[in-house]
Amino acid sequence: MVKAIVMGAAGRMGGRIISLIAGTDGIELAGAVEKRGHDLIGHDVGDFLGLGKTGVLLEDELAACARKGDVVIDFTHREATIDNLRTAADNGTAIVIGTTGLSAVDTEELATVAPNTRCVFAPNMSVGVNVMFKVLENVSSILGSDYDVEIVEAHHNQKKDAPSGTAVKMAQIIADSLNRDLDRVAVYGRQGMIGARTGEEIGIQTVRAGDIVGEHTVLFGGMGERLEFIHRAHSRDNFAKGAIRAALWIVNQPKGLYDMQDVLGLKGN
Predict the structure, then answer these.
(1) For the chain, what is the radius of gyration of the CA atoms?
(2) Which of the residues 3, 38, 68, 159 is marked catalytic?
(3) Residue-wise pLDDT tens digits, 164-179
(4) pLDDT in tens, 59-106
(5) Has 169 been annotated as catalytic?
(6) Which class would CATH give 127-233?
(7) What is 2-121+236-263's CATH topology?
(8) Is 3 among the catalytic positions?
(9) SS3 state at 250
């Protein structure tokens, strides 16, 4: 039985992960953590999630419970995530990270620390999105430079980072497949007399509205035709299920930094 510790346990994503763990074979909740000062610290997580008594009390630091679990699941925010990664590594605990909005410095720190433990890091844990990543790699290599590439992502009005980590990942996959430098060719907005579109541009546009869970559209536009690939998330459960799948997988891997392509066995296919 894999023992999991969930960060941000009183939040929307953390709560769904805990609820789904309760109904998943082979994994159980061993710890739950929230930020210091949270009103629910010390309460049984089952009470505020409607699960009944679980015997797991909400704590305010990972260090206090890190050795209770085999794997940490973290969908929090960039500063907390890097600290949690260090704590997991110090305690020999595996970690699954789905946090987005990491800075370049954060990403460098993650790449340095993660190999000291077992870590899955992915901007999107959805199985469907990760299959789409693989499709985009193949499609862009086939179409080449004859098709313009545009990415449009839409999320709820409370999402803090833009564009989404998923949209950036899609753009990076396509850029790599087309041998382009994303830092040079990415266009994140257009306004005014900008002139004709260049052939190498990869457009990444952002929508924030209402309660949209997540939608990503990738358009390949050629002369006389276009191809569109769309992923729509209808609830957060697909991310939570992917994270649980990653948690079950990572505990049996050697030390290293992995992503969902590794978890799903898509690399090299």
Answers:
(1) 20
(2) 159
(3) 989 999 999 999 999 9
(4) 999 999 999 999 999 999 888 999 999 999 999 999 999 998 888 899
(5) no
(6) alpha beta
(7) Rossmann fold (3.40.50)
(8) no
(9) helix
